Amino acid sequence: MEKFNLYFSVLIVLGFFVLATFLLVSPSFSHINIEIRVIFAVFLYLYGAFRILRILTKLSKRKNEDE
Predict the structure, then answer these.
(1) How far is 18 from 58, CA to CA, in rounded Å?
(2) Longest dimension (CA), the chain
(3) 1 three-state secondary structure
(4) Are 47 and 19 in contact (CB under 8 A)?
(5) What DSSP letter does each residue of 8-59 carry, written as one string?
(6) Which tens digits make up the pLDDT trace of 11-41?
């Protein structure tokens, strides 16, 4: 079950990065002001990076406990 949680967490992080990129380059959001799209995309990128750091911290902590 822990392996499933890891894969699911990574999938969610990739989803944040894809959503942020889609928000920036897609013509579907052209009706939204570019400044708002950039701010929201930066927020999504930063949150994705934060989630990656949490995953890596959790993995290293688990590895240290196993030793």
Answers:
(1) 23
(2) 54
(3) coil
(4) no
(5) HHHHHHHHHHHHHHHHHH-GGGTTS-HHHHHHHHHHHHHHHHHHHHHHHHHH
(6) 999 999 999 999 999 999 889 999 999 999 9
- What is the pLDDT, as a whole number, of residue 18? 97
> 24 vs 16, 36, 57, CA distance in Å?
12, 10, 29
Q: Do the Cβ atoms of 17 and 48 come closer than 8 Å?
A: yes
Residue 67's H or E segment, with its range, is: none
The residue-averaged pLDDT of 38-58 equals 96
> What does the alpha-carbon distance between residue 4 and residue 18 come to, in Å, rounded to a whole number?
21
User: Taking the model in full, what pTM does it have?
Assistant: 0.86
Cβ(19)–Cβ(44) below 8 Å: yes
pLDDT for the residue numbered 66: 78
